Amino acid sequence: MELRTIIVEDEANSREILRNYLAKYTNGITLLGEASNISEGLELIGEHQPDLVFLDVEMPFGNAFDLLDKVPDRTFETVFVTAYNQYAMDALNNHAAYYLMKPINIDELVKAVNYVKEIKEKENALEGQVLTAKSIKTKGKITLPQQDGFQVLEVGDIFFCKADDNYTEIYLEHKKIVVSKTLKYFEDALSEYGFSRIHKSYLVNVGKVVKYKRGKGGSVILANGKELSVSASKKAGLLAYFQ
Questions:
Q1: Is residue 130 scored above 60 in pLDDT?
Q2: Around Cβ 233, how many Cβ atoms within 10 Å?
Q3: Which class for 63: exposed (0-12), middle (13-18), buried (19 or more C-beta within 10 A)?
Q4: Are strands 98-101 and 77-82 parallel, antiparallel or unpaired?
Q5: How far does CA 91 lie from the centroid of its chain?
Q6: Longest CA span, the chain
């Protein structure tokens, strides 16, 4: 598929390098325009409704997060391109599908483009389809340690798990159980039962998902009405559960 793309970068030399790399080393990129600041970037995004925006973090009169905050209902994916690695965690957890450090590594650029293609192709393929989850175990029990012993729980009754430092909150339909285990512990324990890590804070039972929403990192709505954010970097893993 073709990714309709915009570059937002204040340095002319950096724009030229990225433009040339995209033309030479990647396939399926249609470059719609380039912007040197946030206001120009917002104008291009509003005009073209792109699939992908390459976005520098630090720019005059604001940064990448300021631009993204002004497009709350965005459907495009974002790849950050920056010389400042202190933004990496915030970018990947909240905004970006990929994070590239300057000087740009060509192999990483190709990976970034291919990852966004994978997300977009899966989103488009799933629209309007009758979904069937891939083959997973749906029945099983898990023990939750308690002060006076342990509680036995059907894994299918879990809607989602939420990280709380070294604790995990287990959400059922009508109650919450707090367990002194990390979210990574439950990610490993429930991996065979259709649970997907959709965010640094959330592990969701895919069988409880009733709606997927594009925008920002995206989000899912569960059968109990709860809406949970999906990090852009976790989208492909979630969408892979559906055929």
A1: no
A2: 21
A3: middle
A4: parallel
A5: 10
A6: 64
What are the start-end ranges of the E strands in the chain? 3-8, 29-35, 52-56, 58-59, 62-63, 77-82, 98-101, 141-146, 149-154, 160-164, 167-171, 176-179, 195-199, 202-205, 209-213, 219-222, 227-229
pLDDT of the residue at 82: 86
Which amino acid is it at 141? Answer: K
More confident residue, 49 or 138: 49
> CA 81 to CA 225: how far, in whole Å?
36
Residue 9: count other Cβ atoms within 10 Å of its Cβ: 24
> Chain-wide mean pLDDT for the chain?
88
pLDDT tens for 3-19 read 999 999 999 999 999 99
Domains of the chain: 3-126 (3.40.50.2300), 141-239 (2.40.50.1020)
* Residues 199-210 pLDDT 10s: 999 999 999 998
- Distance between CA 74 and CA 52 in Å, rounded? 11
Neighbouring residues of 210: CB distance < 8 A, sequence distance ≥ 6: 221, 222, 223
| Bridge partners, residue 212, by sequence | 220
Question: DSSP state, 96?
Answer: -
Element at 41 (helix H, strand E) = helix 38-48
| Top-confidence residue, 211 or 13 | 13
**DSSP character string of 135-149:** S-----EEEEEETTE
